[in-house]
Design a protein that fits this description.
Chain lengths: 321, 288
C-alpha cells in the first residue's frame, strides 16, 4: 500500500525500481526520528487492535487454550449454524434492535430540543448553571448511575414508588418487570447523555451567521419563528451527521449498563448480542462460539453504518466519508 | 439583564422547562449525598427525600474501617494516575510524527489507525490477546491494551497540524533533534490539548468497571467501581428477594457514602476542566 511500484510490470527497466527504492530509503532516512517516535504506536496497534482482528478467525475454529489462535482445529461455520438455529438468536436479534431503535428514535431529539431551548435563554448565569448541571451525569460512572436508578425505583424506599403509593396505586417493582426495562434503559440514557450531546448542537448554533437572525427580525419574525425557521434549519447538517453515527451505533447497545441493570427476570427483553457474548464467552468460556456471535454483530453494525452513510450522501449531501 | 422581553410567555415557559430539567438531573445526585449523611433510621424508613435528616457520619466511618474500601480507592487512584500518564505519553508521541505532512507512509499509517474505529476484534478476541500477552490479573491489563484511544489520537494530531511551523523550523536550524523539539517546544505548547484529552482518559480510568471486572481476578486489586458494582448487585439481590437487612447501618447509606467518595475528585476537577471538556467534544465533533 505504501508503494505500489514495488512490483512494476516486467517491461519497465529495473533502473526505475532501484531509484524508487533508493528514494524510499532516503525518505525513511530523512524521517527516521519521526518513525522511531511512531514505533510504540505501531506496536500498540498491531498487538492490541490488529491482533484481536486476526483473532476473529477463532470464530471458524474450535478454540482451546492449549493450541491457541494458530493450533486449534478449523470447524468452518459450525458456530454460526449453532447460533442461527438456537432459540436465543431471534430473541437477541429482537431485543438488540428494539433497544437500539427506541434509543435512536426517542433519545435522539432530546439534546437538540435542549440546545434549542438553552440557546433562547437570555440570562447568562441561568444558562450557564443549567448547562453545567446537564453535564454532571457524564462525570458519573455507569455503576453510580444504575445505583441511583435502583434507589429511585426501590419498592420499599424509592421516591417513585412512594409517589405511586401516595396516590393510592400499587407499588411497582420496576427492575424485575420486563415491560419496564426498555423504558428505564432509554430514559436513563437520556438523563445521562443529553447534556453532553447538546454541546455539539450548541456549538453549531453558535456558528450560525447572525445576519440570518437580523434579516428575520427585519421581516418581523418572533423568537419562536427564528428558532423554527433559522436555528433549526441551520442545524440540519449537524443533526444528519449525528444521526448517521447513531444509526451506525444502533445495535451497539451499552452492555456495561445492561449487565448492571438486568436480572434473570428481565433477560427476555434485556439480553442483547453483546451481553450474550459476555456470558457465553467470558463466563462460560465458550470462546469460539461467543466470537462468532460478536463477529455477526460487528458485520451487521458495519452494514448499518455504511448504508446510513450512503443514504445520507444521496439525499442530504452530508456523509462521514 | 432585566428587560421587557424577559417576561414574554415564551421566556417564562422556556425557563420553567429548563429549571425542571435541571431539577430532574440534579435530584438523584443530591439524594445520594443526603442519604450518605442521614440518620440510619430515616434512611431505613425512606424519609430522606432531598436534604439529609440529622447529620451522621457512621457510613463514612464504616467504609473507612472496612479494609476493602480504602484499598480499592487507592487502587483506583493508582490505575488512573498510571493509566492517564501512559495514555498521554503514547498519544502525544504518536500524534506528533503523524501530524508531519510529508511523513514516510503517512497515509498508510492514518488509514490503518482510523480503520480500527470501524473494525475491531470484539470482546472475546481482545480478551484472549490480553491473556496471551500475559497481562491478565495485573494493573497493566487496564492500562496497556487501551494505551491509545484512536479518537483522542486524531484530536491530538490535528492540534499539532495547526501549530505554527516557524517555531519548529527555527529549532531545526539550531540543530535540535525531533525528540528535543517534541519535548521542549511542542508539548509545552500543546498543554491545552493535552488537558482536554487527558480529561477524557482520566474519566475513562476513574469510572471503568467492566475491564477491571474481566481482567482482574484478585479481589485485592479491585478498583472502587468494581467493589461498588458488587455492592449494587448484592443490594439489588436482597431487594429482589424482599429481604430487609436488620443491620444498624442501611446498605444504601454505605453504598452512597462510597459513591460520594468516588465523586468528590471528579467534582473538584470539573469546574476547572469544563472548558477543556467542551473543547474536547468539539474537536471530536469536527473530526467525526
Amino acid at each position: 500500500m505504501t508503494n505500489p511500484h514495488i512490483n512494476p510490470p516486467m517491461e519497465k527497466p529495473s533502473r526505475g525500481v532501484t531509484s524508487k527504492l533508493l528514494s524510499m530509503w532516503q525518505h525513511i532516512k530523512k524521517d527516521r526520528q519521526f518513525l522511531i517516535l511512531l514505533i510504540p504506536c505501531i506496536v500498540f496497534y498491531i498487538i492490541f487492535r490488529y491482533g484481536p482482528i486476526y483473532g476473529v478467525i477463532i470464530a471458524f475454529k474450535d478454540f482451546n487454550v492449549y493450541d491457541g489462535f494458530f493450533g486449534s482445529d478449523w470447524v468452518g461455520l459450525k458456530h454460526f449454524e449453532t447460533f442461527f438455529s438456537s432459540p436465543d438468536f431471534w430473541l437477541l436479534f429482537r431485543n438488540t434492535f428494539l433497544l437500539g431503535i427506541y434509543t435512536l428514535l426517542i433519545a435522539f431529539p432530546f439534546p437538540i430540543l435542549f440546545a434549542l431551548l438553552l440557546n433562547e435563554v437570555k440570562h447568562q448565569l441561568f444558562k450557564k448553571t443549567v448547562q453545567t448541571i446537564s453535564l454532571l451525569p457524564y462525570l458519573l460512572s455507569i455503576v453510580v448511575i444504575i445505583s441511583m436508578l435502583t434507589d429511585l425505583l426501590s419498592p420499599s424506599r424509592g421516591l417513585i414508588n412512594q409517589i405511586i403509593a401516595a396516590f393510592g396505586f400499587e407499588k411497582i417493582h420496576f427492575l424485575i418487570k420486563p415491560e419496564w426495562f426498555r423504558t428505564l434503559y432509554v430514559s436513563s440514557d437520556i438523563w445521562a447523555s443529553m447534556g453532553y450531546t447538546s454541546i455539539i448542537y450548541l456549538a453549531a448554533i453558535a456558528g450560525i451567521d447572525p445576519t440570518l437572525y437580523e434579516a428575520a427580525r427585519v421581516d418581523g419574525a418572533k423568537r419562536w419563528h427564528m428558532m423554527r425557521y433559522v436555528t433549526l434549519p441551520s442545524l440540519i447538517p449537524t443533526i444528519l451527521v449525528l444521526f448517521i453515527l447513531s444509526t451506525g451505533n444502533l445495535i451497539k447497545i451499552g452492555y456495561e449498563k445492561i449487565l448492571l441493570m438486568y436480572n434473570p427476570m428481565t433477560y427476555s427483553v434485556a439480553d442483547v448480542f453483546s451481553t450474550y457474548v459476555y456470558r457465553k464467552g467470558l463466563l462460560e468460556r465458550n470462546y469460539s462460539f461467543a466470537t462468532a456471535v460478536g463477529l455477526f454483530e460487528s458485520v451487521i453494525a458495519l452494514i448499518l453504518l455504511t448504508s446510513a452513510n450512503l443514504l445520507s450522501r444521496r439525499f442530504g449531501g452530508n456523509s462521514l466519508w | 439583564m432585566v428587560g421587557e422581553k424577559k417576561f414574554s410567555l415564551f421566556s417564562m415557559i422556556n425557563t420553567f422547562i429548563l429549571a425542571c430539567v435541571a431539577v430532574v438531573i440534579l435530584y438523584p445526585i443530591i439524594q445520594i449525598v443526603s442519604i450518605s449523611f442521614s440518620e440510619p433510621s430515616a434512611v431505613i424508613q425512606g424519609r430522606v427525600y432531598l436534604w439529609p435528616i440529622g447529620l451522621n457520619f457512621d457510613a463514612y466511618l464504616e467504609i473507612a474501617k472496612d479494609h476493602r474500601i480504602p484499598r480499592s480507592y487507592l487502587n483506583t487512584i493508582l490505575y488512573t494516575a498510571v493509566g492517564t500518564f501512559i495514555n498521554l505519553a503514547m498519544t502525544a508521541v504518536a500524534a506528533y510524527p503523524l501530524s508531519r505532512r510529508h511523513l514516510f507512509g503517512r497515509k498508510f499509517w492514518i488509514i490503518m489507525i482510523v480503520l480500527t474505529m470501524f473494525i475491531n476484534g470484539g470482546m472475546i478476541p481482545t480478551y484472549l490477546v490480553v491473556r496471551e500477552v500475559g497481562l491478565l490479573n495485573s494493573m497493566w491489563a487496564l492500562v496497556i491494551p487501551n494505551a491509545i484511544w484512536t479518537f483522542e489520537l486524531l484530536i491530538m494530531k490535528s492540534f499539532f497540524e495547526n501549530m505554527s511551523e516557524s517555531l519548529r523550523e527555527s529549532a531545526v536550524i539550531d540543530g535540535a533533534s525531533e525528540y528535543r523539539i517534541l519535548w521542549s517546544i511542542m508539548l509545552p505548547l500543546a498543554k491545552p490539548a493535552l488537558a482536554s484529552i487527558g480529561l477524557f482518559y482520566f474519566m475513562g480510568h476513574w469510572n471503568s468497571y467492566f475491564l477491571p471486572m474481566i481482567y482482574l481476578r484478585d479481589t485485592e486489586m479491585y478498583p472502587v467501581q468494581v467493589v461498588l458494582r458488587d455492592l449494587l448487585i448484592k443490594t439489588s439481590a436482597t431487594e429482589t428477594m424482599g429481604a430487609e437487612g436488620t443491620v444498624a447501618l442501611p446498605p444504601e447509606a454505605v453504598k452512597n457514602a462510597i459513591i460520594v467518595v468516588t465523586m468528590v475528585p471528579v467534582l473538584i476537577i470539573y469546574p476547572f476542566a469544563q472548558k477543556y471538556f467542551a473543547k474536547g467534544v468539539m474537536l471530536g465533533a469536527e473530526k467525526g
